[in-house]
Design a protein that fits this description.
This protein has about 220 residues and is mainly beta. It contains 2 helices and 15 strands. It has a 9-stranded mixed β-sheet with strand order 1-2-4-6-8-11-13-14-15, with no helix packed on it. Strands 3-5 form a two-stranded parallel ribbon. β13 (about 170-175), α1 (about 190-195) and β14 (about 200-205) form a beta-alpha-beta unit. The longest helix is centred in the C-terminal third of the chain and has 6 residues, at about 215-220. It is globular, with a radius of gyration of 18 Å. It holds the Pfam family LRR_RPS2. This is Disease resistance protein At4g27190-like leucine-rich repeats domain-containing protein. InterPro entries: At4g27190-like_LRR, LRR_dom_sf, Plant_NBS-LRR. Keywords: Plant defense.
């Protein structure tokens, strides 16, 4: 059981915490893929930082209507340093996915898909008093970002004092996110140096060439 690579929880109606439900003697040090869906009582994925499997590469969450947070304890940093794919769909209680400080440990993230989360306001929350303070974030391996049917999303991060770099980002898709007026602040003075590989984004099915245009201006629309 210690060599388990893939774990799925589906239609577990009484499950409120994924890892708290498991035998405490069970070791998941080699777990790489975790899928959780249609668990109507689930409130948290990770109850404490020790719950996060160190080799986890793929996390997919679908139709978790009571999910409040990925991580219950906000005072400790969750380490998902090997995560490559994060997909969250139809989790309507989520307002943010992670605190900004946790993003420092997402250095291997390659794909991020957020769909049909109706209360979601941002992927990363504002930094709070008592948290580790950061100024710059680099998503060094993120290649694909998809934001679909997020009616309350205002931006990738609600803390616009943070600056970002996306050296590998090639594809951005934004569909039906009407409140999204700003993507993020950028770490460099021009878009080319912060997103050197991103030449085009897709907004509501329309391909828009950046051609040196600030991505935030694209999100604001032609009238601005």
């Amino acid at each position: 059981m210690t060599k388990l690579k893939l774990l799925r929880f589906y239609q577990c109606s009484k499950l409120s915490n994924v890892f708290a439900s498991l035998n405490p003697q069970l070791q998941l040090k080699e777990l790489e893929v975790l899928h959780v869906g249609y668990c109507n009582a689930l409130e948290y994925i990770f109850g404490k930082k020790e719950d996060a499997p160190p080799c986890l590469r793929e996390l997919k969450l679908d139709c978790l209507m009571r999910l409040k947070s990925i991580y219950k304890c906000c005072t400790e940093l969750l380490d998902l340093c090997n995560l490559e794919v994060l997909q969250i769909n139809r989790c309507n209680e989520l307002k943010v996915i992670l605190p900004a400080s946790a993003a420092q440990r997402l250095g291997k993230l390659k794909e991020l898909h957020l769909d049909n989360c109706y209360q979601l306001e941002a992927f990363l929350a504002k930094q709070q008093e008592g948290e580790e303070t950061i100024e710059n974030l680099v998503f060094s391996q993120l290649r694909m970002l998809s934001l679909v049917d997020l009616p309350n999303l205002t931006g990738f991060c609600t803390d616009y004092t943070l600056t970002f770099k996306w050296p590998s980002l090639e594809k951005v898709e934004v569909v039906r996110c009407p409140k999204m007026q700003m993507f993020v602040a950028v770490v460099a003075s021009d878009e080319d140096s912060s997103m050197p590989k991103l030449k085009m984004i897709k907004v509501d099915g329309v391909d828009i060439m950046l051609e040196g245009t600030d991505i935030n201006r694209v999100m604001q629309g032609p009238s601005n």
